[in-house]
Design a protein that fits this description.
single chain; about 400 residues; alpha/beta; FAD/NAD(P)-binding domain; D-Amino Acid Oxidase, Chain A, domain 2; 8-stranded mixed β-sheet; 6-stranded mixed β-sheet
């Protein structure tokens, strides 16, 4: 079915308007449309946003941090859904999304890094996760191009990857074929009537009314005019820089799986693609809305990556990019109904937007059709920073 440009004055209002056409907004729109709700996505550039800069690691185990055990359960549940999600999306869109069940190797370069990795291993084991501790020699057997100084590592076969750019392209196509409409302009204000959200005003002057509104605008979610005081959307931008390189033609790839490490306290990862591309990231800086690539960020990434895989300096550098992660105070997403009837949130996914796309789309589609979040999503309810318990679900 062809895409529809809907919602102008005089046209029938859709059931749902999704503000934001990044990976989360597109997954939500696709799943919602498949449930039979007329859905429109509002975004000047659907498919843009943080996904264009993301590395695409599906890493619930190696991304685990102390205090995030509840988020771990959501991350694991979404990772479990990924193979079926990819199969359905590939069939719907007719394109590959670069999903690889290749596993991850987290390594340590010195004694301090090794001690930190041991702490991570203990936390992972306490959480019942399948992780194997390897010696440095065992790490190099798996990945021969690792530096000789690698002191040990963790083999995590369950942490996989997907290529975010083909993923969002496939989601756009799947949305179009499911009948999702598009308004390729910015939403400027939430429309409220009778103590209920009824849609959004658009930059071109139109008012797009809808039965329900989903705010999925990433870092910009809290900046929409018209949000009432009782709806807290504490999402801030956290900048990250990445590099894209390419393996040399005629030579075997440098790496066969994702490799991660902490080097002098800074995280670095290398994600090899089947295409021969190698993604290196990611810095993490509180720099507001600044998306300029810095010489220092590029230097840090290349320096740390070179310590892990010395051969990386021979590869051609294809691209440097900086993006903004939408981050909440507890690094977990805001999902589902708010204190304002008719308004739901799907934002604040921090480093896990690509990983959580399947389960977010599923949870929001369920909430939009039934008025209630599924049990697995309730710890991340949209009202938790506004004093709402999450048990009351506005009609």
């Amino acid at each position: 079915m062809a895409a529809r440009d809907t919602g102008r004055a005089g046209r029938e209002a859709p059931d749902v308007v999704v503000v934001g056409g990044g990976v989360i907004g597109l997954a939500t729109a696709w799943r919602t449309a498949l449930r039979g709700l007329a859905t429109v996505v509002v975004d000047p550039r659907p498919g843009g946003g943080a996904a264009g800069v993301a590395a695409g690691m599906l890493a619930p185990v190696t991304e685990l941090h102390h205090g995030e055990e509840t988020l771990l359960r959501l991350n694991l549940a979404s990772a479990d859904r990924y193979p079926a999600f990819v199969a359905e999306l590939t069939e719907a869109a007719g394109t590959d999304v670069g999903y690889r069940a290749c596993g991850t190797l987290a390594v340590a370069l010195d004694a301090d890094d090794r001690a930190q990795l041991r702490e991570s291993h203990l936390l992972q084991r306490r959480c019942g996760l399948e992780v194997a501790w390897l010696t440095g020699r065992e790490c190099r057997r798996l990945e021969p191009m690792l530096a000789p100084g690698v002191r040990g590592g963790l083999r995590v076969d369950g942490d996989h990857q997907v290529d975010p750019r083909p993923l969002v392209a496939a989601l756009r196509t799947a949305c179009q074929r499911a009948g999702v409409g598009w308004r390729r302009e910015a939403a400027t204000e939430l429309l409220v009537s009778g103590d209920r959200a009824v849609g959004v005003a658009l930059a071109g002057g139109d008012r797009l009314t809808a039965g329900q509104t989903v705010l999925a605008a990433g870092c910009h979610s809290g900046a929409l005019a018209g949000l009432p005081p009782e709806v807290a959307v504490p999402v801030r931008p956290v900048q990250g820089e990445i590099l894209r390189l390419r393996d040399l033609p005629g030579r075997p790839p440098l790496l066969h799986r994702t490799v991660r490490a902490v080097v002098r306290g800074a995280e670095v990862y290398l994600v090899p693609r089947d295409s021969g591309e190698l993604v290196v990231g990611a810095t993490s800086d509180e720099r507001g809305w600044d998306t300029r690539v810095t010489a220092g960020g590029v230097y840090q990434l290349l320096r740390d990556a070179h310590e892990l895989v010395p051969g990386i300096t021979e590869l051609p550098l294809l691209e440097t990019r900086a993006g903004l992660r939408p981050t909440t105070p507890d690094n977990a997403p805001l999902l589902g109904p708010t204190a304002l009837p008719g308004l739901q949130l799907a934002t604040g996914h921090h480093r896990n937007g690509i990983l959580l796309a399947p389960i977010t789309g599923e949870a929001l589609a369920a909430s939009l059709t039934s008025g209630e979040l599924p049990e697995y999503a309730r710890p991340f309810h949209a009202g938790r920073f506004a004093g709402d318990t999450g048990r009351r679900v506005p009609a």
